[in-house]
Design goal:
By secondary structure, the chain is of the alpha/beta class. It folds into 2 domains: about 5-155 and about 360-500, FAD/NAD(P)-binding domain (3-Layer(bba) Sandwich), CATH 3.50.50; about 165-235 and about 270-355, FAD/NAD(P)-binding domain (3-Layer(bba) Sandwich). Helix content is about 30%, strand content about 25%. The chain has 14 helices and 23 strands. Strands 1, 2, 3, 4, 5, 6, 17, 18 and 21 form a 9-stranded mixed sheet that branches. Helix 1 (about 20-30) links the parallel strand 1 (about 5-15) and strand 2 (about 35-40). Helix 1 packs parallel to helix 12 (about 405-430). The model is unreliable at about 1-5 (pLDDT under 50).
């Protein structure tokens, strides 16, 4: 890898122009107006996830009153929004806070090296080719603070297991992360027999959209997933927006929805049978005359929120099943053949198109290995500090949202805390801050605990550890984090962060 001269120096470099990166930039503009910053983005447009995924029906799996920014009210009555609508919302935020001129597209961070003598990160930034891969053209930037907002999964390498006999299949095999442009409209999908392998959020999103475009769709799952049918236009939300000023209504709805999500998660941990009963009741109602399908196809063996709960706005997947345009098969794959899939039960599924909705590949820090004063740091050897910094690594923050609630709830908290931290460093005249572990025998726990989803288990060993005590924990509670990050009694200088000039 070659390197060039330093192109520019900024106080803060933000990596990623998705929901987190644009949010961080807006918070900097609002709360740290004296700080210079730049944003680098590997793709050719902003939006992150909402620019990458283009499969039919792509939408949020959280309500937009909590997935939206805390400073920018979501103005639609639609709660579960389509991807293009979310991307436009992100663009509006970037335009309102003059972020666009700070973004350089088509640039991927491939190296980051910290020098304590100068209190600077030197960042290697590779130009990206048309396929999104880094080239040999590498430039350098320097910054005092590096904020990684590159998400949690690989954009270029989806999780894609090989299936027996798949080379024999004469139809088309598609992964949702690499959806082709020619499979978007009714003209292209009408009458197609499509098997979607998987039962996670992507499959639950895809199936009703494909069915609506005239395809005959089968969801092939090894085991069921908990699915929650919910109205896409909540009458309480609509009523509040009619009687309260926009900002007040948004704040109230956001607070209520975040509380409701956390209540459901807490119930799943303490009284799982109660939540199971609530979900089964809603699914039974959504299935109507097809309620007999609830067992075995919609009754998982695990408790709700042992894996992520899937949303079905207006019960759309169940409506597709009732209409006869979609079906569910719970079985295992024996092999692909020329015309479809043979199952271990001996049954077969004929298909023109097979969609491998088999998940994501976790990627820590966008695949970058940080170097501190010449020493490569293995993230797995560090502890997370308040879910956004790493022990022993100075002036580096990362944004990782919740797995049981809207990503942006934590992204906003982290952005605000980073701004408070930067302002304190400025007022105190210090240039470096690093979390320091004082107890070498501090207990270790996985970064994400009590969440055995496959995409987490595969690569979680690459992430930092957490412990059993604050501030070395990765909380999954918005209420807890809000209190411990932004509460009135929170001291930035907590005896764990080590500041120096």
């Amino acid at each position: 890898m070659g390197s060039g001269t330093a192109l520019q120096h900024v106080d803060v470099l933000i990596v990623g122009a998705g929901l987190s990166g644009i949010g961080q930039a807006c918070h900097l503009t609002r709360e740290c107006p004296t700080k210079t910053y730049a944003v680098v983005e590997a793709r050719q447009d902003l939006g992150g996830t909402w620019d990458l995924f283009t499969y039919p029906g792509i939408r949020s799996d959280s309500d937009m009153y909590t997935l939206g920014y805390d400073f920018k009210p979501w103005q639609s009555d639609i709660s579960i929004a389509p991807g293009p609508m979310i991307k436009e919302y992100i663009r509006e935020a970037a335009e309102e806070y003059d972020v666009l001129r700070h973004i350089t597209f088509g640039r991927r961070v491939v190296g980051a090296s910290w020098d304590s003598a100068t209190s600077k990160w030197t960042i290697d930034v590779a130009h990206v080719d048309a396929d999104g891969e880094p080239t040999d053209t590498v430039e350098q930037m320097t910054c005092n603070w590096l904020q990684m907002c590159s998400g949690y999964y690989s954009y270029s390498n989806p999780h894609r297991p090989e299936f027996p006999g798949e080379s024999e299949f004469t139809g088309q095999i598609v992964h949702p992360q690499e959806w082709p442009d020619e499979l978007q409209t009714r003209d292209e999908l009408d009458g197609k027999r499509i098997v979607v392998i998987g039962s996670g959020a992507t499959a639950v999103t895809l199936i009703p959209s494909l069915a609506e475009k005239g395809a005959q769709v089968t969801m092939l799952q090894r085991s069921p997933t908990w699915i929650f049918p919910a109205p896409n236009r909540n009458p309480i939300t609509i009523g509040l927006r009619k009687v309260l000023p926009e900002a007040a209504a948004y704040k109230t709805i956001r607070k209520f929805n975040s509380w409701r999500t956390e209540y459901a998660y807490t119930t799943s941990r303490k009284k799982p049978e109660k939540l199971k009963g609530m979900l089964n009741k809603q699914v039974t109602k959504a299935l109507g005359d097809d309620a007999g399908l609830i067992d075995p196809h919609f009754t998982p063996s695990y408790n709700p929120w042992d894996q992520r709960l899937c949303l079905s706005p207006d019960a759309d997947i169940f409506a597709a099943i009732r209409a006869g345009n979609a079906s569910v098969v719970t079985d295992h794959i024996e092999t692909f053949d020329a015309d479809g899939i043979v199952l271990t039960s001996g049954e077969r599924l004929d298909a023109d198109i097979i969609v491998t909705a088999t998940g994501l590949e976790l990627l820590a820090l966008g695949g970058v290995t940080p170097v501190v004063d010449g020493e490569q740091i293995n993230l797995a050897d560090t502890f997370t500090y308040k879910s956004f910094m790493y022990s022993g690594i100075p002036n580096l923050g990362t944004t990782f949202g919740y797995i049981n609630a809207s990503w942006t709830l934590r992204a906003d908290l982290v952005a605000r805390y980073v701004c408070r931290l930067l302002n304190k460093m400025r007022s105190d005249g210090v240039r470096q801050v690093v979390p320091v572990v004082s107890d070498p025998d501090m207990p270790q726990r996985p970064y994400i605990d009590d969440f055995p989803a496959g995409y987490m288990k595969r690569n979680l060993h690459l992430y930092p550890k957490q412990s059993d005590r604050d501030p070395w924990t990765a909380s999954q509670s918005y209420a807890y984090d809000k209190k411990h990050l932004l509460g009135p009694n929170v001291e930035i200088d907590d005896g764990v962060l080590e500041f120096s000039a």
